[in-house]
Amino acid sequence: MDSLINASARALAAGDALGALKHVALRNDAPALALRGIAMAQLGDLARARELLRRAARGFGQGEPLAHARCVAAKAEVALALRDLSGPPRALLTAADTLTAQGDRANALQARLTATRQWLLLGRLEEAAASLAATDMADDAQRLPPALTAVAALCAAELAMRSLQMAAAEAALARAQYSAAHAGIPALQAEVAQAQAILVQPAARQIGQHGERLLRLDEVSDLLACGALVVDACRHAVSLGTRRVSLARRPVLFMLADTLARAWPGDASREALIARAFRQRHADETHRARLRVEVGRLRALVKPFARIDATPDGFALRPHDGSRVAVLAPPIEGDDAALLALLSDGAAWSTSALALALNESQRTVQRALVALQQAGRVRAIGRARAQRWLTSPLAGFTTILLLPASLPSG
């Protein structure tokens, strides 16, 4: 590399994107294009950054595998910022293997962290954990830039928070804060501070016989571990201790469980159950017959830790061993809560990326976005394939429990 390329690279490593551009702004060789692309990404012009990195990767070709792999890793990071989640990061992981083989440990780690963050956005927590485990830095943590160790710690913290492992989350955030302070990059320090704020913000509401109260993430973890029968409206599941039944793909059964839990220790009338589960104001015999069938299905699923008894007016939830019942409700209600939770990160999402993250059809997501736009809750920028959706960050509470998560069914 020549002196200008070296100077530009040093400026980028220090977070000085404008300083980096001053050295290579008028050059179109592959190394300069790569540095310009990274600088434009740091300045927020992601579309231009992706085009520059694409040209750089083509310029290096397969004859320079190390430089080509670096461009692939940088393009993947830009794509993540653009919320382009078009598929599993196989090319990125291949680039990471190339970088490791070529001795570029820092960029290999960066590539694997990008893959981890993509899995986290998609709610694929097991894949994220496996990807993060592959970034083990125990052997050479002291030789890596502190910015990378901070990002790795942030990924570990998010994974722990999404899994409600609060002690691990607090330890990871402490590591992230220490490394970010040594990196001296304001944007990274702000990201760590934002993650730390999640720990003290309300994350859910507990609804029980004594009313409703707001819960932080650590209090949610304590509630799930306290031996109560919890109907979790954030993840659409029923749990008692370590036993868990997912109802995420069975909305009617979940609505029945939620209605029964809100009525505990009393019973829920048949009219109330039909109104919530079937969205029918006036019940007839066909609805009552369907209710008996659905309650039978729910009874079979929750049999390991509760029974559902028929009463003169309706049905009642009776946990085994006299456990109490609590409903864990999200901070925002509605069918579009998970969609709003994704959009509240401040990034501009494409419809296809939202559909992939939510595991829904693109048409379903489009209809929901149009309805939210008409209600003034989201806005669109761009047109056709360049259209992106965003909303203002939701202040005062965290939506982390509403984010998609592929969790075991228990």
**Inertia-based shape:** elongated
Question: SSE string, helix = H, strand = E?
Answer: HHHHHHHHHHHEEHEEEHEHHEEEHHHEE
Query: What topology, given as strand order, has the largest sheet?
Result: 2-1-9-3-4-5
The amount of helix comes to 55-70%
How many β-strands, per DSSP? 11
Count of helix runs: 18
Q: Write the CATH homologous superfamily of the domain at 204-329.
A: Winged helix-like DNA-binding domain superfamily/Winged helix DNA-binding domain
Please state the average pLDDT score: 88
Largest sheet: 6 strands, mixed
Q: Please report the distance between the alpha carbons of the first and last residues.
A: 55 Å
Structural class per helix/strand content? Answer: alpha+beta
Q: Which CATH class of the domain at 204-329 applies here?
A: Mainly Alpha
The name CATH uses for the topology of the domain at 204-329 is: Arc Repressor Mutant, subunit A
CATH architecture descriptor name of the domain at 204-329: Orthogonal Bundle
Overall radius of gyration? 25 Å
Q: What percent strand? A: 5-15%
Unreliable residue runs: none
Helices and strands in order:
Elements: H1 3-13, H2 17-24, H3 30-43, H4 46-60, H5 65-81, H6 90-101, H7 105-121, H8 125-133, H9 146-162, H10 166-183, H11 186-198, E1 204-208, E2 211-215, H12 217-225, E3 229-232, E4 237-240, E5 243-246, H13 251-263, E6 268-269, H14 270-278, H15 285-302, E7 306-310, E8 314-319, E9 325-329, H16 337-343, H17 351-358, H18 362-374, E10 379-381, E11 388-390
Parallel strand pairs: 3-9
Antiparallel strand pairs: 1-2, 1-9, 3-4, 4-5, 6-8, 7-8, 10-11
Helix pairs in contact: 1-2, 1-3, 2-3, 3-4, 3-5, 4-5, 5-6, 5-7, 6-7, 7-8, 7-9, 8-9, 9-10, 10-11, 13-14, 13-15, 17-18
